[in-house]
């Protein structure tokens, strides 16, 4: 029997499978800056105030869209339009019919593999509560996510 992410498309996943697909990297919770001229999106090391920097999980997942109005709700029909999603994002990979990487917890069987592989923002991001919005460009991430 194939793993569910190889056997179904995003729209066919159960709610539990959808949630399990998230690797817990926290990258999508980082503040992003969009170049007005080029449209290019650049990530910063500044994270949403709801992101627990140690666990890389939302501290108020059920209310996140209420508390953070610009928090994007990932759905099967929105993934393809979100070109700024990290290249490593499992939702993006499944939508693009690509394999999940070996460090993904569903593949490795280890929920900490996303952290031990250096993919997550664990202990590298800083809460937006500690950064003035005008200073976001000081926290630009140089590598491509």
Question: What general outline do the C-alpha atoms trace?
Answer: globular
Biggest sheet, strands in spatial order? Answer: 1-2-5
Count the beta strands: 5
Low-confidence sequence ranges? none
What is the domain total for the residues? 1
**In angstroms, what is the radius of gyration?**
15 Å
Summing up helix and strand content along with how strands pair, one would put the structural category as alpha+beta
The share of residues in helices is 10-25%
Q: Return the string of H and E elements.
A: HHEEEEHHHHE
Task: Report on the architecture of this protein.
This protein has 145 residues and is of the alpha+beta class. It has one domain (4-139). It has 6 helices and 5 strands. The strands form 2 sheets. Strands 1-2-5 form a 3-stranded mixed β-sheet, with no helix packed on it. The protein has a two-stranded antiparallel sheet with strand order 3-4. A hairpin with a 4-residue loop joins β3 and β4. The longest helix is centred in the first third of the chain and has 7 residues, at 15-21. The protein is globular. The N and C termini lie far apart (32 Å).
Task: Describe the secondary structure blueprint for this structure.
Blueprint: H1 4-7, H2 15-21, E1 30-34, E2 41-47, E3 51-52, E4 57-58, H3 64-67, H4 90-95, H5 105-108, H6 113-116, E5 126-127
Parallel strand pairs: 2-5
Antiparallel strand pairs: 1-2, 3-4
